[in-house]
Design goal:
Length: about 280
């Protein structure tokens, strides 16, 4: 009988290197990500399509991207931001929210971001950058994976099966490695880069639910003449709307919920586990 494979941990550099090399070779990596897990791969179209199918999503569903924390501003085309939104204010809000923890921003996509990772909205190419925040050790994994794969961005998606596959009304992201691995057992190249202590990872983000990140759009401010300018919360996830507004208000920015974000994302429950 084969010996069990030892676990890989996000805080162990040699494990990070193993996972990064596997990703560059085409593997699917479930990585410790702030207070939960995310699925990360190379950003090429074939790999993104394969993950969509593995999750039970439509094969051509547009993906989000991630990168190391210092590279995030380079994922956007700042020349296409509305003149009603001073770039300095948006960048300061980005720094504040990523400095605090996991979050996502959607804005004008840099020209090099490929079409399968871009959504056209009001005639503008936009991309979503999902990141775990400044202090998460997964940033070291992202840096190593970028170097190994020769890219400046990676594909990222929530660590869950799609509701299109399961038939559930909602399939929240996983925050425990064991059930995550069971959900993706059909992937023979799945690599799990775990939190060493999942309870400690959750405790490190007391203001965040263990669910997919809250997502804020800045590519199309609402209202022609409204002041302060209005940004749109496209998804109400781990960070509460009130906290986003508290970060935005001193910078002269308003935040409003999109119609699709009126229901906050649920937290996944596990039998016998305390959330």
């Amino acid at each position: 009988m084969d010996a069990p494979t030892p676990p890989l941990y996000i805080d162990r550099p040699e494990d990070v290197a193993v996972a990064a090399r596997a990703l560059a070779g085409g593997a699917v990596v479930a990585v410790a990500f702030a207070n939960l897990y995310a699925v990360v791969t190379r950003p090429d179209p074939a790999t993104v399509r394969r993950v969509n199918l593995a999750k039970g999503r439509p094969v051509h569903q547009v993906g989000s991207i991630t990168t190391a924390i210092g590279r995030i501003p380079g994922m956007y085309d700042w020349t296409r931001i509305s003149p009603r939104l001073p770039v300095g204010r948006v960048r300061a809000l980005m720094d504040a929210l990523y400095g605090a923890g996991p979050f996502g921003f959607r804005g004008p996509a840099a020209e090099r971001i490929p079409e399968h990772l871009v959504r056209v909205d009001q005639g503008l190419r936009t991309t979503q950058v999902i990141a775990p925040g400044l202090t998460c050790p997964s940033n070291a994994f992202f840096e190593r994976a970028l170097a190994e794969s020769g890219s400046d961005h990676l594909y990222i998606t929530s660590a869950n099966r799609s509701r299109h596959l399961t038939g559930a009304a909602e399939e929240p992201a996983h925050w425990k490695a064991g059930p995550l691995a069971a959900d993706f057992a059909h992937l023979d190249d799945l690599v799990v880069l775990s939190h060493r202590d999942e309870a400690a990872a959750r405790a490190a983000y007391p203001g965040y639910l263990t669910t997919s990140v809250t997502l804020l759009s800045f590519h199309a401010p609402e209202g022609e003449l409204e002041e302060p300018p209005v940004l749109t919360l496209d998804r109400h996830g781990s960070l509460h709307l009130d906290e986003v507004r508290r970060a935005a208000a001193p910078l002269g920015l308003q935040v409003r919920l999109a119609g699709t974000a009126r229901q906050r994302l649920r937290v996944r429950g596990y039998a016998g586990a305390l959330v």
